[in-house]
Write a structure and sequence with these properties.
two-stranded antiparallel ribbon; 7 strands; Rossmann fold; 5-stranded mixed beta sheet; alpha+beta; single chain; 3 helices
């Protein structure tokens, strides 16, 4: 009888302890290795014959898809940078964006704007873990192509909000 009571008490304490632990607590991951991408090993992508987006106005925003740090493949055509949010020349606040043209010719006249973000959450989270052409999941050493990227069906613009110098500093743009 005593053994049964002790055993049931022990099981109850263990169950209560595990129930009180936060389900959001991150598991400790193995230390990550530094991944060095050799430019000669970058998988080249078949470039489109012409780009309907590259011109003299967009050229300063063009991203070299084969030179994105730690990405071992050519991510394709995209444009990124910051835009002023007011006409006041002394306003230092700028809006960060990253535009990814669709690979589908049918999408040439449409665009989807991904507006997410806020304190502690960047639109890059959705880009890297949900719907962007590059998928870099937690606990992995390097990204892979995302076969379910929304750029398969539409042009995508991602923007980080709120506008702040913190976001721009983390991106190395401020």
């Amino acid at each position: 009888m005593r053994t049964t009571i002790l055993l049931s008490t022990l099981v109850s304490v263990i169950g209560l302890t595990s129930a009180l632990q936060s389900p959001h607590r991150k598991q400790s991951l193995k230390p990550k290795r530094d991944v060095v991408v050799n430019p000669a090993q970058v998988e080249k992508r078949q470039a489109p014959a012409t780009s309907s987006y590259l011109n003299t106005k967009t050229k300063p925003y063009a991203v070299n898809g084969s030179a994105i740090p730690m990405v071992p493949f050519d991510a394709g055509e995209s444009y990124a940078g910051t835009l002023p949010v007011s006409t006041n020349a002394t306003d230092e606040n700028r809006l960060y964006f990253w535009f990814w043209p669709s690979e589908t010719p049918k999408a040439k006249d449409e665009i989807t704007i991904w507006l997410i973000g806020g304190p502690g959450c960047s639109s890059l989270d959705g880009f890297l873990q949900e719907n962007g052409p590059i998928s870099w999941q937690s606990g992995t050493y390097q990204p892979i192509r995302n076969p379910y990227s929304w750029t398969n069906i539409t042009n995508m613009v991602r923007s980080s909000a709120p506008i702040s110098r913190v976001t721009l500093t983390l991106l190395g743009l401020y």
